[in-house]
Amino acid sequence: MSSRTLAERYELLEKIGDGGMAVVYKSRDKLLNRYVAVKILKPEFSRDYKFIESFRRESQAAASMSHPNIVNIYDVGREGNINYIVMELVEGQPLSSLIKEKGALKPREAVMIARQIASALSHAHKNHIIHRDVKPHNILLTTEGTAKISDFGIAKAVTSGTIINGTGTIMGSVHYFSPEQARGGYVDEKSDIYSLGIVLYEMLTGQVPFDAENPVAVAMKHMNEEMAPPSVLVPDIPAEVEEIVLKATDKYQTNRYKSADEMVEALSKANLSTVGVYGGYGKSRNPDPPNAKDIKNDLKEDSITERPGKADLWVKSMKGKKKIRLNKVKVAAIVLALVLAIPASQLILAAIERGTAPTEVTVPPLAGLTFEEAEAALDTVGLKIKLQEEVASTDFAEGLVVSQDPLADMVVKTGKTVNVNISKGIEENTIPSVVGKTLSDAVFLLESYGYKKGDVGEEFSEMPTGVIIRQSPQAGSAAGPGTKVGLVVSLGEEIVTTTVPSLFGMTLDEAKKALEREGLILSPDTQYAPSNEYSEGLISGQSISPGSAADKGTQIKVTVSTGRDESAGSRIIYIPISYSAAHNEVFYLTVMVSDASGVTTPINYEQRIRSNGQETFSVTGNGQGSVKIYFDNALVQEFVVDFDSGAVL
Questions:
Q1: What domains are defined for the chain?
Q2: 273 vs 163: which has the higher pLDDT
Q3: Which of 251, 360, 503, 524 has most Cβ atoms within 10 angstroms of its Cβ?
Q4: pLDDT at 602
Q5: CA–CA separation, 385 and 405 (whole Å)
Q6: Active-site residue list
């Protein structure tokens, strides 16, 4: 393209990306004399002032964040009808390209990338920002192996309106949608965790868990179908890594990780060194899922597994039982290079640079490595290691790194020394930690160390139902054999419900106060639509119907009237819906609307209560079409409508 300058500052040099909503240019910031990426919204989005307002607000919020795994946003602006964001220019490639090129990634590489993105999401969530569009296309990998997530502003701006544009194309990444996103329900931090779980699944297997001929069918699969565990596709996936995928992608938000920090911790502690022949398929699930037997039979004949040991790397053939011992320092360096996806030339260049001026590097995670492996990992980035002390540990086996200083992911100068503590295992007559384990697993572990189960209590907590949240005596306490250990089991989060008030005809301020009186929250994702029933500025719709029960703290989304719909050829039609056909007292209502254009639009709502009786539903469109009513995804009623005349047949 010919050179053009925005805001008399950003010189657009060449187009480097073209997506559904924006075009990205490599540019030069003439004021600071540096290269940046300038993302320009496409014209069709620049005509919607509500979208632009939301886009600017969310982009400015994203610009306030600073994290090594988040693409920095430097500026947000508008020149004429051009809306743009100025961002950090990342030299590398998107994760989607790496998966397309390599297929399934090595588990260690996939976990490393997922851990960095989970850390980025944790930072965003603590700043009250939900990404809502986590996918490989939005994850950039630098040439040094650092993963960075982008598009916070655009992702939330788009989903704050409708996910359907004028041509019927879904504005979002339906392959990575959480069930609540696909259902049009309440989206929170755990929705990002679900999407990251799908990304981790794709990195481990080379494919997404759900696919279909159209986006609506994919969304329905996210809501209704169980995914095949990743080890069914790639049998040598470590069990603990598979458990992380399955927990992050649980269809119920309360069963997922309670925070991105908790997922970071799980990824950091995941055991990658012991890979079962048949993969990590479900410790508590059916051991023979569909197609798994065929995979097992193939593996029995000629499978080879590689297992990094505490000090050596052993390659073991299931036929020959032959062991080959390799130099452990060299092996650790090779493994780290694979994990970080650093070309050999980069390692050589880093070594040359370390002989001159110090540079900034990111400290790698060392927990779970042997001292030799940690030393090799640090050496590849120009850092030194020092053994601080040996400590008792119930989480790490003897000889493995327990903790480090500086912490993983911190940025330091080359040549700095990283102090590590090494596990000396569990000391004799020391009580192990059982917090976070199921009751049966906890009892088994205690008994294996010579202790007994004491009194067992139950409490509500943020931890998953059925796991130990507290023990007495505490882990690490000295106690003789036969000592009883008291346990407290989680009942899950205590759910307190309230009744949703009617917000129809209220202003946004009035609705906010009405919801707060009931312990509910007005969602910031306000939608705007024409209404022939309510005046401009008044609420004409709400995501949960009045009188319904909802958990305290639930966000309620509302639709605000923009005035009467004066557009030619379009008429609002009111459809009466009776709840009598519902099989369950609490059920999900879905309305599928199609018109003369052939576009089928799913309008998903939150739960309905059968005893509330009925409601009247309004739809719009052009020409002749149909309206289908589903209760819990079962068709219960269908109407033929003429949007031009307003007739319901």
A1: 4-88 (3.30.200.20), 92-302 (1.10.510.10), 328-423 (3.30.10.20), 439-490 (3.30.10.20), 508-648 (2.60.40.2560)
A2: 273
A3: 503
A4: 63
A5: 10
A6: 133
